[in-house]
Design goal:
The protein is of the alpha/beta class. The chain has helices at 18-30, 43-54, 97-113, 127-138, 151-165, 198-205, 211-233, 238-252, 297-317, and strands spanning 10-14, 35-39, 64-67, 78-81, 119-122, 145-147, 172-173, 176-177, 185-186, 192-193, 196-197, 257-259, 262-266, 272-277, 280-283, 286-290. The structure holds nicotinamide-adenine-dinucleotide (NAD).
Length: 319
């Protein structure tokens, strides 16, 4: 008999706004979930989104889509939290802190009250701080509470590198680490194109005049992506929806995928009691292992700087 009380492949999405509904659409198309439940404090919105999606059921791989209630916390396998206030133009992710922390605490309290055994994926911003808040409030093992972290940023980085180098994005292995926000950084020491390091690849390529300059620009573009998209259309949701399918898929299928999700560090990289993104192995249990890699000295410094930024925000919250 299984020790879990959750229904296999039941995914509950809290927050049926732009990110939540786009994720639901992408998840339904993926065929990974058996049941998708949408929950929102705006019940009409959740109902409308669920109906609209459910009318696509004949075209999706088999899936059941409904609007739910807090009772669905009791048997969901994965709960994805996208509930919260949106980032306004020009607003930093940390500005959203106070508005979203109490929303997340309320959701965690509702889950605890229903003895939820779900793995929780935080998406709402500032995602690192809110992952920390959810972890502390729930008292659950750290692996069960993870943030989408820099999975999206790493995808943006891979896309830009593939464009720049003229190489299939699937051959580009590259990671953005640290805060999902302004202090994030590219782990160049871990970056390779089909096993070829950038140091080896660049001299053979000859396509850019000044690689040091170009690589700084690529990282800046990654960092500014969300600001630009929000300026253009008010929100970002397609790529993050797909990043969430990747993370939730790794949990549902027990994939042991290495993903830069956000987690509470416990001495790794010399950091403790702070949440940020480093490569971790994601399984059915959530984060099974945080991988410690030999970062370059400037990357270690950048990680420590991200930790300081996030720790300051946590202190400002008084948690
Ligand atoms: P949105 O305003 O479209 O949707 C948020 C939804 O949350 C709204 O429908 C609102 O009614 C609901 N909500 C608020 N409080 C709630 C509660 N207590 N219980 C249930 N529902 C509640 O916003 P969005 O564009 O979908 O963005 C959602 C969040 O995701 C934001 O914090 C945004 O910054 C974040 N985001 C994160 C990433 C990432 O990579 N981590 C990427 C994009 C957006």
């Amino acid at each position: 008999m299984s020790e879990h009380t959750w229904r296999s492949r039941k995914v509950l999405i809290v927050g049926a706004g732009a990110v939540g509904s786009t994720f639901a659409y992408a998840l339904a198309q993926s065929g990974l979930a058996e049941e998708i439940v949408l929950l929102d404090m705006n019940r009409d919105l959740a109902q409308g989104q669920a109906l609209d999606l459910a009318h696509g059921v004949p075209f999706f791989p088999t899936v059941h889509i409904t609007a739910g209630t807090q009772e669905d916390y009791a048997d969901a396998q994965v709960v994805v939290i996208t509930a919260g206030a949106k980032q306004r133009p020009g607003e930093t992710r940390l500005d959203l802190l106070h508005r979203n922390a109490s929303i997340v605490e309320g959701i965690v309290d509702d889950m605890v009250a229903r003895d939820s055994q779900a793995t929780v994926v935080l998406v709402s911003n500032p995602v690192d701080v809110l992952t920390y808040v959810a972890h502390k409030r729930s008292g659950w093992p750290r692996g069960r509470v993870l943030g989408s972290g820099t999975v999206l940023d790493s995808a943006r980085f891979r896309y830009l590198l593939s464009q720049h180098c003229g190489v299939d994005v699937h051959n580009v292995h590259a990671y953005i680490l640290g805060e999902h926000g302004d202090s994030e950084f590219a782990a160049w020491s871990m970056t390779h194109l089909a096993g070829i390091t950038m140091e080896e690849y660049c001299p053979a390529c000859h396509s850019c005049a000044d690689w040091a300059q170009e690589r700084a620009e690529i990282v800046q573009q990654v960092r500014d992506s969300a600001y630009h998209i929000i300026d253009y259309k008010g929100a970002t949701y397609y790529a993050v929806g797909l990043a969430l399918v990747r993370i939730v898929g790794a949990i549902l299928r027990n994939q042991q995928s290495v993903l830069t999700v956000s987690t509470v560090l416990d001495g790794e990289y010399g950091l403790k009691d702070v949440c940020l993104s480093v490569p971790s192995i994601v399984t059915q249990e959530g984060i099974a292992r945080v991988l410690e890699t030999d970062l370059a000295p400037d990357e270690r410094e950048a990680l420590a700087h991200s930790a300081t930024v996030i720790q300051k925000a946590i202190s400002a919250l008084g948690r």
